[in-house]
């Protein structure tokens, strides 16, 4: 089994990152470069999180195997593999977050019409970004060179760069972690309250409708600009190819309205029109891409929010049901699968939605709260090694004494997974106006995807170092002389910068206590509310007004959908009731039409013979005294005998013979 666990986790983590990217990104529309860069960044960060427990168990085995014989853990990784693995993963992620992803961000947002133009725009936008880093690094390098007490080699210079990157990441990590440690347990506890999620959904509906209207207005303004330029620039103008590129990015209904007339062959040189410049077209192209993406995102989010609101209203109605059968206002249009038919029946759904789900959320909220308290306590006491006060360090040391490597791996994985959940969920929840926003159901733009990849790559290394400090596996913090993990050896010794190792890394995480208290009392939410950014607060008049507005919007959409379904049901009933009669009537009508056509064809085919016989009768002399007159030509076909003479045939005795 040597190395098998490492290979299995590498494959599993890849599919996890691919699944998340498919949920938030759009494989069909977004650029392959954007998708690949984001996937690689997420994949490397998830790898660090999942592989680090194996590194800890391997070091624990090495520590115990020096004194006495003990069995190898099933996930033991051979010597020399982990240092190479961590070196490749770490430096690849750092190149992504500090060099490639910022450039790819600007490239994806650029409105240029060629690859060269997009690259030029990306380099100009990142010149200040890269210049700032070079200035800081150069200042530190000059300071080190001037100081006579420091004699740095390449390894120490590399450690300074890693320390600077981890310091920046730790500064942001504590802010996000302090919010997530309180907000995640509280969100599950609030979800267990009856009606809380419904009120919050009404609040979101009111805000989303405002955003949706703003997005539609922005799209209309952008399309109006495109229409004007499309009408002014003719087919033979040099800028026409840029106009066609912009038109391809517009929605289909606007493309049909603005479809240029191909019969218009006016020469653009004959009229003195004010034509746009290429720079203005680049700006318009960027505006159109942003407006279309935002419009599509708000439209999809509105439909998803409506489904959530309808479901929560159904839960509120079914709570008082005496039949214990969950009844939906709008049944699903998709056919039921075997899971819904045999396992998740309406009775099971009622017990889960109306009874069990609330208690499961409460139990989960309590467990997460206990984990949050343990993390806060350990963050404030992890520097104490005699006695050991960090709860996670105590758990790992107890497992090491019993040689329970599986317990070590599970404890490490649960701890670091909880820390990552608190940090990463905050990254997925935060929203910086409309520039950074991770929206599910394939509605995240390229800029936000790459920005999240940058944040993950900058937050994951300091998060893992912080975790190793919590379990006393980082000698730079615990001040213990023992074998380090391969991950810590790649990070280098923080003793090069003693004021960071002994000061910032130890005392700054204590700030998490203040952040947790501020999050518990919703100080940030109240500040944003005072600044004009409406937040969901139960004791606020603006929140109550938005809840009422959202409730009315949901009620209006529900009536609209109900009318549509009622009309569809009436059409279906009408078809079932009168469909058979209509089919019989149509079938009889078709048969009658076929008989009529056959008769008309037969009559038209015999009409010339009848005309010739009548002409012959008019030409021959009539014998009015004859008793009978036989028309051989006509009687041979019809089998009927006519009386002699035309006038004699109208006598009273034979007037009804043909009837």
UniProtKB/TrEMBL annotation:
InterPro entries cross-referenced by the UniProt entry: GPCR-associated_LMBR1 (IPR051584), LMBR1-like_membr_prot (IPR006876)
Region (Disordered): 624-659
Protein name: LMBR1 domain containing 2b
Keywords: Coiled coil, Membrane, Transmembrane, Transmembrane helix
Gene Ontology CC entries for this record: membrane
Coiled coil: 205-232
Entry keyword Cell membrane: no
Topological category with respect to the lipid bilayer: Multi-pass membrane protein
Any one Gene Ontology BP term: adrenergic receptor signaling pathway
Positions of transmembrane segments: 6-22, 34-54, 84-107, 127-146, 158-182, 359-377, 406-427, 496-521
Domain of life per record: Eukaryota
Native source species: Erpetoichthys calabaricus
Localization annotation: Membrane
Family statement: Belongs to the LIMR family.
């Amino acid at each position: 089994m040597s190395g098998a666990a490492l290979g299995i986790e590498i494959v599993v983590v890849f599919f996890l990152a691919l699944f998340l990217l498919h949920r938030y990104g759009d494989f069909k529309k977004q650029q392959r470069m954007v998708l690949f860069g984001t996937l690689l960044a997420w994949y490397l960060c998830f790898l660090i999180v999942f592989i680090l427990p194996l590194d800890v168990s391997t070091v624990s085995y090495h520590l115990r195997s020096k004194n006495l014989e003990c069995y190898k853990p099933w996930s033991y990784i051979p010597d020399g593999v982990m240092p190479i693995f961590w070196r490749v993963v770490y430096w690849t992620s750092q190149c992504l977050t500090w060099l490639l992803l910022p450039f790819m961000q600007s490239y994806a947002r650029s409105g240029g019409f060629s690859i060269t133009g997009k690259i030029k725009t990306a380099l100009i936008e990142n010149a200040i970004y890269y210049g700032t880093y070079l200035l800081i690094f150069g200042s530190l390098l000059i300071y080190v060179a001037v100081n006579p007490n420091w004699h740095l080699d390449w390894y120490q210079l590399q450690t300074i760069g890693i320390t600077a990157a981890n310091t920046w990441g730790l500064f942001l990590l504590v802010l996000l972690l302090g919010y997530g440690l309180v907000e995640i347990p509280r969100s599950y506890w609030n979800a267990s309250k009856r009606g809380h999620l419904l009120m919050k959904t009404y609040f979101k509906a009111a805000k989303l409708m405002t955003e949706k209207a703003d997005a539609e207005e922005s799209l209309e303004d952008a399309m109006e600009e495109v229409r004007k330029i499309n009408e002014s620039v003719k087919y033979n103008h040099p800028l026409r190819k840029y106009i066609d590129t912009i038109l391809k990015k517009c929605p289909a209904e606007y493309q049909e309205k603005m479809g240029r007339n191909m019969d218009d062959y006016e020469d653009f040189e004959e009229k003195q029109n004010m034509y746009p410049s290429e720079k203005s077209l680049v700006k318009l192209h960027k505006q159109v891409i942003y407006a279309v993406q935002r419009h599509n995102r708000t439209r999809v989010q509105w439909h998803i929010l409506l489904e959530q609101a309808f479901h929560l209203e159904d839960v509120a109605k079914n709570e008082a049901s005496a039949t214990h059968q969950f009844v939906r206002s709008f049944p699903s249009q998709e056919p039921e699968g075997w899971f819904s038919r045999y396992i998740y029946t309406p009775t099971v759904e009622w017990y889960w939605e109306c009874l069990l789900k609330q208690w499961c959320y409460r139990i989960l909220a309590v467990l997460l709260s206990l984990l949050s308290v343990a993390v806060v306590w350990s963050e404030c006491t992890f520097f104490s090694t005699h006695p050991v006060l960090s709860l996670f360090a105590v758990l790992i040391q107890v497992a090491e004494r019993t040689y329970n490597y599986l317990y070590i791996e599970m404890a490490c994985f649960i701890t670091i997974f909880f820390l990552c959940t608190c940090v990463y969920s905050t990254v997925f929840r935060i929203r910086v106006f409309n520039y950074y926003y991770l929206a599910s159901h394939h509605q995240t733009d390229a800029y936000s995807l790459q920005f999240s990849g940058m944040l993950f790559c900058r937050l994951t290394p300091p998060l893992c170092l912080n975790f190793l400090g919590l379990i006393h596996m980082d000698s730079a913090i615990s001040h213990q002389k023992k074998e380090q993990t391969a991950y810590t050896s790649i990070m280098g010794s923080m003793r090069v910068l003693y004021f960071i190792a002994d000061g910032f890394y130890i005392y700054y995480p204590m700030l998490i206590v203040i952040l947790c208290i501020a999050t518990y009392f919703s100080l940030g939410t109240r500040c944003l509310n005072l600044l004009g950014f409406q937040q969901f607060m139960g004791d606020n008049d603006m929140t109550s007004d938005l809840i009422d507005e959202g409730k009315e919007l949901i009620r209006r959409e529900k009536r609209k959908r109900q009318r549509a379904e009622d009309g569809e049901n009436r059409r279906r009933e009408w078809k079932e009731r009168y469909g058979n009669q209509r089919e019989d009537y149509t079938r009889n009508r078709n048969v009658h039409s076929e008989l009529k056509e056959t008769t008309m064809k037969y009559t038209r085919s015999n009409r010339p013979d009848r005309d010739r016989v009548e002409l012959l009768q008019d030409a021959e002399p009539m014998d009015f005294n004859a008793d009978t007159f036989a028309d051989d030509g006509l009687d041979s076909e019809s089998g009927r005998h006519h009386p002699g003479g035309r006038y004699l045939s109208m006598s009273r005795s034979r007037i009804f013979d043909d009837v």
